[in-house]
Each structure stands twice: as structure tokens, then as C-alpha cells.
Amino acid sequence: MLLDKNSQNHYANAQSTATDARVLSVPKGDNPLIWPVLTLLKSSNTSWKVHHLASELQTKGLMHDLDPMPEKDLFKRNFLLMNALYELQDMLMPRQWLQVKAMDIQIFRIIPSNADIEHTRDGALRDYYLDWANYDASVNVVREMLESFWSSYQQYIGVNVQLMHKGHALKVFELDATATDKDIRKQWRKLALKWHPDRDEGNAERFREVCEAWQTLREKSLVA
């Protein structure tokens, strides 16, 4: 499922002919595949192959058809998954190392001695997948698609459909009314990663509460 650099260049060149479809801002909210990917990686001590991760996410209803053209559908699925993996890699450092290779994806509790070298070596590829301008769709399509993923993930973790009060949501995030969008997003990632139930010190109830607070802040349009 992982496309090689020639394929990536092909899509990048194709996008240059349609600037209105490739100029994207960061979509509303994080890529919600981050958390189910973490769950899958922590569920086994063995490494994963990228296409096995994709198949498992599809089985759980978290990976959808993204384009009527098979080749572009494959690319977009791959982009979302790789984006989630590289986001998670940055979030786990420096306490843990997430190795992101097409046929060898796994979390190491002890940072390998060559982690810095690998992180630097993969910089160009990581930057590619973290840049939403490389996703071939308009910003509205991306946002609608991610909203659909988030709805599926809500069912996956059992989030309460009733939104919290905005003030309570900010309190869960340990923030006040002066918090900026950047503050909220940063705290969301910090707390979600801290309490994720598949981490050693995680707590399912706290994680669910943080997810519900995040959903409230998204719905209240505090996070663009």
C-alpha cells in the first residue's frame, strides 16, 4: 500500500496543474486515525506492515473509500495512514520510538541508538506526509472526510454524544477562556497521548473524558 517516491512525485506533479484543489489549510481537528493506529500498534509486540494496518482499520470501519478512481483512492488511504504514523512518531518522542517503515512498523519502549539518524534520514518523506497540500482534494472535501472519520471513531471508543459545557471542556484540558486554538490543539495531543488506554500509564475513563472535551471544543468552533 505504501507508494514509492516516484509515485509520490507523479501525484505531486499532477497536483501542480490544479492549484485550487491542492492549496489546503490544516483540516479542522487532528487526523483521527492517530488513536486507533496507536491501539493497533500497542496490541501486539510484533511489527506491522502498512497494508495490514490499513486492512485492520477498514475492518473496524475507520478506513473509507476516498476517491472513485482506484489509484487515487489507494494514494489517499496511504496518505492518511502515513500522516497518522508520522504524527504519532513525533508525539511519542522522546520517551518512545515509533519505527515507520512500510514493512516494519512498531513502537520501541527503549529508544534505539540510531533513532536520531533514522529520524533525520526520513525527514523529507515525513515532511511530505505531514503536509496536507499533498493530499489531492479541496479543503472542504478533506474536512468532511475527517469529520466522517471522527464520527466513526466516536462509536469506536464510545464517546458520549451529548457535548460538555464549554467551560467544563476547557477545565478538562486544564485551560481557561484565554486559551488560543494552538493552546487547545497542543493540550489535546498531550492529554490524549497521556491517557490513551493502550499506554502503560493510560486510563480509559480519562481518555474518554479528554475525547469528549475535544469534541465539544471542535463543535463550539474554538479550534479551526
Automatic annotation (TrEMBL):
Record SMART domains: DnaJ
Domain J, residue spans: 168-222
Sorted UniProt keywords: Chaperone
Keyword Chaperone: yes
Taxonomic superkingdom: Bacteria
Pfam families in the cross-refs: DnaJ, DNAJ_related
CDD domains per UniProt: DnaJ (cd06257)
TM ranges: none
Name of the protein in question: Molecular chaperone DnaJ
Originating organism: Shewanella litoralis
